[in-house]
Amino acid sequence: MRLDGHIESVSGDKVTVQLDQTPDPLRLRQLAHGKQPSVSVDVEDGRHISPDQRKKTWAMIRDYADYTGYSPIEMEQWLKAYFMADTGAEYFSLSDTSMENAVAFLTYVIDFGFAHAIPWRTQTLDAIPSDYPLMMQCLKHRICIICGKRAEIDHEPPIGRGYDREHIDNRRFKFFPLCHAHHMVRHTKGIEWFMSFYHIKPVKLDDDTIISLKLNSRKQLNEFDKEASDEQTH
Ligand SMILES: [Zn+2]
């Protein structure tokens, strides 16, 4: 049940809301099951979805539709249904939803694409907002950060030949996910050129992320720590 209105006054932790319509007391009692009904008050910031957000969201939906065979309109309905089921959001329209909900939905749509390994067009990857944690998702799902193709996780600095890859402390490296073609570009052009041309930087990962990406196991990290402390004491 949703009650719309305006905040009249705020005094400490007490908020008075003037409702647009008188709520039905019987319906309220039914919902409360004999307890004190609980509510959450959503404060709208008054801003609505921007044309840019709408464009980006529809670009994703179109790509997913191409891949799944649904029409874009069907795909939009599916994604909204999943979003509403997962978040409890109410039905909304992409023409006039709040900016806050637009951001939440776009993030959800991007996550959905990664989770279901839906192939991206390069333009779509470019359209992902810069505040979205794209690098982590691309690492997790082994997707090239530049073109969206299948990727390997590249070390920076590169691991030289002759090193046992199984016995490397990955906390000492930075990483980015690159497909074979972009991996080759990086090696022929060099890392400095590569970073400034594509505007990307490899990232350092914390222990938990290194483990979740299966770069090292917890046991290995502990062994590296032990080796390091043994060396210090000798
Ligand atoms: Zn690539």
TrEMBL record:
InterPro entries: HNHc_6. It comes from the Bacteria. It holds the Pfam family HNHc_6. This is HNHc nuclease.
